[in-house]
Design brief:
This protein is of the alpha+beta class. It contains 5 helices and 5 strands, in the order H-H-E-H-E-E-E-E-H-H. It has a 5-stranded mixed β-barrel with strand order 1-4-3-2-5, surrounded by 4 helices.
């Protein structure tokens, strides 16, 4: 399955079955990701990068970006067996460094997401009191959905 196609399907299902609140620029988190995201290429995690805990991608990516300012935090969707909300960092060449997922078998994972400035990510995590920017504890980050995103 093509990851971007999966995200489009989720966006379309949400648009068909829900209603968009007044004053929101994006219909859903998936709409935000599709309008502002891009495809990233996976590469093996460099030896000097320590693997993080599984199922803690938002924290793992944040900590990598905090420790190395040459890395850029990203959120969106990843496809490793099944599509899921995910976070990773990219290097200066735009290659994914994902210190959460392991054991890919024959098929490398796919990534589609949004690059985010570290200061914005840090401020959002502090104000929301949990890791992750696009998805909150219960639903999409409504503050992020209101205004057009400025890509970096």
């Amino acid at each position: 399955m093509e990851l971007k196609q999966f995200i489009q399907t989720i966006r379309d299902l949400k648009a068909k079955n829900g209603r968009q609140p007044e004053g929101f620029h994006y219909k859903s988190a998936e709409d935000f990701v599709l309008q502002n995201g891009e495809t990233f290429n996976w590469k093996p995690v460099p030896d000097h990068i320590q693997m993080g805990r599984q199922k803690e991608c938002f924290k793992n990516a944040f900590e990598l970006a905090m420790m190395d300012p040459t890395l850029t935090y990203c959120e969106g969707y990843g496809l490793h067996m099944i599509p899921t909300e995910h976070a990773w960092v990219v290097d200066q060449d735009g290659n994914v460094i994902d210190n959460t997922w392991r054991d890919f078998g024959d098929e490398p994972p796919q990534y589609f997401g949004v690059k985010m400035p570290f200061d914005f990510v840090n401020d959002t995590i502090i104000s929301q009191e949990h890791y992750g920017v696009i998805w909150g504890e219960v639903c999409a980050n409504v503050n992020l959905m209101r205004e057009p995103w400025r890509k970096i």
